[in-house]
Specification:
The chain is mostly helical. 66% of the residues lie in helices and 0% in strands.
Length: 599
């Protein structure tokens, strides 16, 4: 009898029924025996009635009326149930004493019933009722575990759900059962789908390493478009939907990613046992990317307790546990005033997962708070703040902390700029309010006498404690703004800021920003694991890059710098190709800017 066309519903991830794992029946019945069994079974009116109903169902299926087709297939199963050989076919015991002809007829009834169940699965797949389709496949393979049609139908359902490993197993069984061409085609589709999922996973990992700014990258937009299109094409593909939730989290859309996961978890029957494990893992991944390590650990533990757990769940769970240990160790040492121990704890955390750019931004900011308590490490603290901002350009607390540090080294205007950025990224939060208050204080101090009202921290107390804020759990204070005066300005000769960033003087602000991010990531001491000499060189280069970008990222400072650069370049011994004319250190240049601006 003709079977309805195979499902064209799109690929990926659901669950498996225990009976689908049954071993293939060893050996195939002889062709003559099969024919004689069908001839015997066809003598019953029940057989003819069932075949007629199945034929009508096929017509409805070809007309894309899948609901009507399903009804006909179900009626066909009911009609076949009245067959006199049905009791023997379903294991009622008569087949134990039946003659060979009757046994062959019972086998034919079983095979035909298996085919009808497979047809029901095809219609249900097209209707989007995949959990029911799996149950029909399960019933089909219980009746005839080697029927190629039933094996192929079950494989198609698993492909539609994205469970490629299970689909591959069934396509291989179908090939051994005689469906060589269809089985080979299915295996090819499995391979292509698995390769594409691997590519998506690699691209997603690269975007995570980039931190919060990944959302502005073309690679993020391209991957987002591909996943959205694939999810529309493959409406039942749970694996693709889960990857889309992970991508949203990588781009910082934690609320939407979390909503997708919770909605999927709220429908546990949508795709069987592995559905729960997949979405518990995905929610754990989203919470991990958001910095909620405790919540991530809870969800990942749930995934580990379910069947069909994704392979990455165990490793991510261990990573979340280790990161939380190191963060808490750093926080505890900070509260005790043990700044070196706190910085060491955050450093250990930074070495655990280079792919989690957003969480690493948090650790860099915390380490900056610890290093800021020691005057000898102010440059390192500034470097850490810069690295946090490179990884998360929306991180309000990092801007606030860097502003305080810049005030301590005499960079008042850059500090005011950072206060403004902190307010922009947290307009209604505690960090934004603190930034507005500090900005007003600094401006008021600048308006008065440079001796009695100039910024030196005043009587303002140090910020400290792990008060969190701005959606960042477990953060340190805002920085060190004690009453001591900024350290004396160190005059030194520096290279041309454009040369430091490896850019031409006419470079746009966006080009300078890209160059800075690239060089900051390349030369940050935490990214260089060589000898002490190599790490010291990387630290020096990183600070140089940081200083150059501080000047060129400020429009007014850059304009004055360019004017001074051109003026000195006209004199013998001036800039030339670099700073050969003995240009003063950056701090001295800034001092001139500030005195003109605020006098």
């Amino acid at each position: 009898a003709a079977a309805p066309p195979t499902s064209t519903a799109a690929p990926p991830s659901l669950e498996r029924s225990s009976s689908l794992g049954a071993a293939d029946r060893e050996g195939a019945p002889q062709v003559a025996s099969e024919r004689s069994g069908e001839q015997e079974a066809a003598r019953s009116p029940a057989w003819s009635a069932a075949e007629e109903l199945k034929g009508r169902g096929n017509g409805k299926y070809e007309a894309k009326d899948y609901a009507a087709a399903l009804q006909y297939y179900q009626r066909a199963l009911g009609a076949l149930g009245a067959h006199p050989l049905c009791e023997a076919a379903t294991g009622g015991g008569r087949d134990l004493v039946a003659p060979a002809a009757t046994a062959a007829g019972a086998a034919a009834v079983r095979s035909r019933a298996s085919s009808y169940h497979a047809n029901c699965a095809a219609a249900l797949t097209q209707l989007g009722r995949l959990s029911e389709a799996l149950r029909e496949c399960d019933a089909a393979l219980r009746l005839d575990a080697a029927l190629p049609k039933s094996l192929l139908r079950a494989a198609h359902v698993f492909m539609s759900l994205g469970e490629y490993v299970r689909a591959r197993e069934l396509y291989e069984r179908a090939s051994r059962a005689g469906a060589t061409a269809d089985g080979a085609n299915g295996l090819r589709m499995c391979g292509e789908a698995e390769q594409e999922m691997g590519r998506v996973g690699s691209e997603l990992a690269a975007l995570r390493r980039a931190g919060a700014q990944c959302k502005s990258r073309q690679a993020f937009r391209d991957l987002s478009s591909r996943l959205e299109a694939s999810c529309l094409r493959c409406a039942h593909n749970e694996a693709l939907k889960a990857l889309r939730a992970e991508l949203l989290a990588a781009g910082g859309d934690f609320g939407e990613a979390r909503s997708i996961c919770l909605a999927a978890i709220g429908k546990p029957d949508a795709s069987g046992p592995s559905h729960g494990a997949l979405w518990s893992y995905t929610l754990g991944r989203v919470l991990y990317d958001a910095g909620d390590l405790v919540g991530a650990e809870e969800r990942l533990s749930e995934a580990m307790a379910r069947p069909g757990t994704p392979a990455a769940a165990k490793q991510l769970l261990r990573l979340a546990q280790r990161l939380e240990v190191e963060r808490q160790a750093g926080n505890a040492a900070f509260k005790r005033g043990e700044w070196a121990a706190a910085a060491a704890g955050y450093t250990r955390g930074l070495q655990l997962d280079p792919n989690n750019g957003r969480f690493n931004a948090l650790l860099y900011c915390n380490r900056a708070a610890a290093n800021a308590r020691r005057d000898s490490l102010l440059e390192q603290a500034l470097s850490d703040c810069n690295m946090a901002i490179v990884l998360d350009t929306t991180y309000a607390k990092a801007y606030l902390r860097r502003a305080e540090l810049r005030l301590r080294v005499g960079k008042r205007q850059l500090a005011l700029d950072d206060f403004g950025l902190a307010r922009r990224h947290d307009p209604r939060g505690t960090v934004g309010a603190e930034a507005a208050k500090r900005s007003a204080e600094v401006r008021a101090a600048a308006a008065g006498s440079s001796h009695s009202h100039g910024y030196s921290g005043g009587s303002r107390s140090q910020h400290g404690g792990f008060a969190g804020g701005a959606g960042r759990p477990g953060h340190g204070g805002y920085g060190y703004a004690g009453s001591r005066a900024p350290p004396p300005v160190e005059k030194e000769r520096e290279r041309c800021h454009y040369e430091v960033l490896e850019m031409k003087p006419g470079a746009s602000a966006a080009e300078l920003k890209r160059a800075y991010r690239k060089l900051a990531l390349q030369h940050h001491p935490d990214k260089n694991n060589g000898s002490d000499t190599e790490r010291a060189a990387a630290q020096k280069r990183f600070v140089e890059v940081q200083r150059s970008y501080d000047v060129l990222s400020d429009a007014s400072a850059r304009a004055r710098y360019d004017a001074e650069r051109l003026r000195r370049g006209r004199r013998p011994g001036g800039f030339g190709g670099g700073f050969g004319g003995g240009f003063a250190a950056e701090e001295e240049l800034f001092a001139g800017f500030y005195s003109r601006r605020y006098r």
